[in-house]
Design brief:
Layout (H helix, E strand, L loop, with lengths): L8 H10 L8 E3 L5 E6 H14 L6 E4 L2 E6 L3 H12 L18 E3 L4 E3 L11 E5 L11 H14 L23
Antiparallel strand pairs: 1-6, 2-4, 2-5, 3-4, 3-7
């Protein structure tokens, strides 16, 4: 990851553009300037790793109260849950087997607000930036890119075996020393 964890003046101006009142920058409304996808901390970090290692990087990303907040293009909060449902991630597959699950992603869009790290004190208040806003027009991933990152993060945590499970009642003989 190459982005800074310190917010720039241009990044602070971008965040402030989302708020109605410039003084209240710790809680900002979603939906017009950005949406936010909130993931459990570890899974969100795995998504972020996928975005940076295998993709085009990410927009701003913060952590707050055990969740990773991925800033996304407006409209993502409405579209991402539909894409996840369509892909059937987190549901039972055929014959009752469980597919790799994506943990609950909370999508914040129009009508929602999120707490962000204070631009003046990037590590204060329990919230901190993993990737701080650094421009007045940061690149924000859309729903398809975040779906891609979530699917790859979920697949990375699944172990696949091509052999049959061991029969617990079977007798095992060592034949390696036979003549």
């Amino acid at each position: 990851m190459s982005s800074s964890t310190r917010i720039t003046p241009d990044g602070a101006a971008w965040l402030a553009s989302a708020g109605t009142y410039r003084r209240s920058s710790a809680v900002l409304p979603c939906g017009s300037v950005f949406d936010v996808v909130s993931a459990p901390a570890l899974f969100g970090r795995q998504m972020l790793d996928r975005l940076w290692e295998d993709g085009a990087g990410s927009g701003p990303v913060a952590v707050f109260r055990g969740r990773t907040l991925l800033f996304a293009a407006p409209g993502t909060a409405q579209r991402l849950p539909a894409l996840l449902a369509w892909e059937e991630w987190g549901t039972r597959g055929g014959a009752g087997r469980r597919t790799a699950a994506i943990p609950p992603l909370l999508c914040h869009g129009t009508g929602d607000a999120v707490t962000v790290p204070e631009p003046v004190t990037p590590t204060g208040g329990g919230a901190r930036w993993l990737v701080a806003p650094d421009s007045r027009e940061p690149w924000l991933p859309g729903p398809e890119i975040l779906l891609w990152a979530a699917v790859r993060a979920a697949r990375a945590t699944v172990r696949i075996s091509i052999s049959h499970p061991a029969d617990q009642g079977a007798k095992v003989y060592d034949v390696s020393r036979r003549r």
